[in-house]
Amino acid sequence: MKKIVFVSVLFISFAAVSPLFAQKISKEHESEYYVNTVFLEKVYPYQVGYVLQYRKGINQMARLYIPYEWFTEAAGRAELVTLPPGANWPYLTVFYKDGEFSHIRLYLHRSKAHETWGNVPLGVNINDRFEGVDSIKLEF
Prior knowledge:
By secondary structure, the protein is an alpha+beta fold. It has one helix and six strands, in the order αββββββ.
């Protein structure tokens, strides 16, 4: 009986103290980045970039305009990850460092025949939407 009481007290004291150590460890390894992930409804390739359409509310859509130049190593603001078909993408991950926009990671279906890929109609000129884009502001 004494062994059961001793083990119970030992277990309870360990359970009470362990969260304190967990908090200390997590503070030491805390990232300087804040990450926001948004699932995309449609991705439209355009001659100067991607048009990304996502839900911002019930029956409301928002669009982002990401220039292709962001995907070059010189600009370094975007990374494109193509994945095989699945139900969890396409989506966009936006990284903020110290409260300021840092970069994005875009996860898209490898096959452009997938239903999440769209086409901008011929004759539509939206070049001005890509000019001067230097950060992302998500709408919700």
